[in-house]
């Protein structure tokens, strides 16, 4: 029995296989999509990584990029691969309310309960919007995902083959003991030059706040602890100050 279970687990790692049910009119159509992950696992190994390593995700709207980072033996994270974002909704700037068709920006955490292996977009995981920061500002919305396909109503779509890889890494990290995967979403690469160019934008103060967290990761190579403190993101020890709520994944 133990051997049989082990074979099934290995098969799940090497083959992303899911039966999706999609309602069309009054009929359900089941579609099976199969992705062989053998080559992907080999590419991870060649880069010095393995499924189960701790993971981190960064998203950049303007550049239409999703970055997948993995932790090395020294504790720092290194970029494994970036993926094109096929589509996101709205413009640069945060999501404010349900139905505004805007994709969120900010600091989010993904736990195993946020994974959806039965998504109609092949695979998906929920960003966890609204987080504590969003709630402090009265922002509303639901079902904001990273998923496959190439359509978006507030989500980040990265195509089915690409989400198969990202999902596999996030899922394996969570199953191997990572309590939550940090997903940091930015309007653009937060360089001083890029931010200065947006100095007159309504969202410039918010983006400067995001840049503080961006800079900490760039310097330390590890995602900082993030808290929401009276409608402002704070980091590290400051994230645990008075009137602060730590940004957390779903329990």
From TrEMBL:
<keyword id="KW-0133">Cell shape</keyword>
<comment type="pathway">
    <text>Cell wall biogenesis; peptidoglycan biosynthesis.</text>
</comment>
<keyword id="KW-0573">Peptidoglycan synthesis</keyword>
<dbReference type="InterPro" id="IPR005490">
    <property type="entry name" value="LD_TPept_cat_dom"/>
</dbReference>
<dbReference type="GO" id="GO:0009252">
    <property type="term" value="P:peptidoglycan biosynthetic process"/>
</dbReference>
<feature type="active site" description="Proton donor/acceptor">
    <location>
        <position position="147"/>
    </location>
</feature>
<protein>
    <recommendedName>
        <fullName>L,D-TPase catalytic domain-containing protein</fullName>
    </recommendedName>
</protein>
<feature type="active site" description="Nucleophile">
    <location>
        <position position="155"/>
    </location>
</feature>
<dbReference type="GO" id="GO:0016740">
    <property type="term" value="F:transferase activity"/>
</dbReference>
<keyword id="KW-0808">Transferase</keyword>
<dbReference type="GO" id="GO:0071555">
    <property type="term" value="P:cell wall organization"/>
</dbReference>
<dbReference type="GO" id="GO:0008360">
    <property type="term" value="P:regulation of cell shape"/>
</dbReference>
<feature type="domain" description="L,D-TPase catalytic">
    <location>
        <begin position="55"/>
        <end position="186"/>
    </location>
</feature>
<dbReference type="InterPro" id="IPR038063">
    <property type="entry name" value="Transpep_catalytic_dom"/>
</dbReference>
<dbReference type="Pfam" id="PF03734">
    <property type="entry name" value="YkuD"/>
</dbReference>
<dbReference type="GO" id="GO:0004180">
    <property type="term" value="F:carboxypeptidase activity"/>
</dbReference>
<comment type="similarity">
    <text>Belongs to the YkuD family.</text>
</comment>
<keyword id="KW-0961">Cell wall biogenesis/degradation</keyword>
């Amino acid at each position: 029995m133990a051997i049989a279970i082990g074979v099934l687990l290995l098969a799940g790692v090497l083959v992303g296989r899911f039966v999706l049910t999609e309602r069309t009119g009054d009929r359900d159509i089941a579609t099976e999509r199969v992705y062989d992950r053998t080559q992907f696992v080999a590419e991870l190994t060649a880069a010095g990584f393995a499924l189960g390593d701790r993971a981190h995700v960064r998203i950049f709207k303007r550049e239409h990029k999703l970055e997948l980072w993995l932790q090395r033996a020294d504790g720092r994270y290194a970029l494994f691969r970036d993926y094109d974002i096929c589509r996101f909704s709205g413009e640069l700037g945060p999501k404010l309310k349900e139905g505004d068709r805007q994709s969120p920006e900010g600091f989010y955490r993904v736990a195993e309960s946020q994974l959806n292996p039965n998504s109609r977009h092949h695979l998906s995981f929920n960003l966890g919007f609204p987080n504590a920061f969003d709630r402090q500002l009265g922002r509303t919305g639901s079902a904001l995902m990273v998923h496959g396909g190439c359509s978006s109503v507030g989500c980040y779509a990265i195509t089915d083959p690409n989400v198969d890889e990202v999902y596999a890494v996030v899922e394996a990290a969570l199953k191997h003991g990572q309590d939550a995967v940090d997903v940091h979403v930015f309007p653009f690469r937060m360089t001083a030059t890029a931010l200065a160019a947006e100095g007159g934008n309504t969202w410039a103060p918010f983006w400067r706040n995001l840049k503080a967290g961006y800079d900490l990761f760039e310097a330390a190579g590890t995602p900082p602890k993030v808290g929401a403190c009276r409608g402002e993101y704070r980091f590290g020890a400051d994230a645990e100050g008075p009137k602060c709520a730590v940004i957390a994944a779903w329990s």
